[in-house]
Amino acid sequence: MFSVGDKVVYPMHGAGVIESIEEREILGQRQNYYVLRMPVGDMKVMIPTQNVDDIGIREVIKGNDVDKVYEILQDHDVNVTNNWNKRYRENMSKIRSGNIYEVADVVRILMKRDKEKGLSTGEKKMLNSAKQILISELILAEDSEQVDVESMINGYLGD
After folding, report:
1. Is the pLDDT of residue 96 over 70?
2. What fold does the segment set 7-59 form as a domain?
3. 117-133 pLDDT, tens per residue?
4. 83-86: long-range contacts (C-beta < 8 A, 24 or more apart)?
5. Is the pLDDT of residue 159 over 80?
């Protein structure tokens, strides 16, 4: 169970801070919800407290783990399939996992591929989504600003 003020990651949506825990009635059912404030896009998300384990909510990474994310971004070895459909499914699976290292890998692969060969519309959307998820967690993990985190990512990937 998480508490107000905890920094958590909501897979496929990004990281946020629990602002409150509220009881609400939605579709005739009363239940408790975590209300998350997301740093990217400044939006609020409500998550049923009873679904936390099923959804894969986890705490934001700490110091050494941030360094590992930046190491992944610096890795220049990109070995992925040329089959668009297979590559898209693999990358989507990594994003859904909620694992920050997998998301960082997707950002790295897609940014490098974009520079070399360009991306399809679907992959551009995927890159944007993965990047926002990655940025939101790094903002909270490092207690920094969005522009600084984006600059670091772009610097590592030579953008």
Report:
1. yes
2. Thrombin, subunit H (2.40.10)
3. 888 999 999 999 999 99
4. 84/120, 84/123
5. no
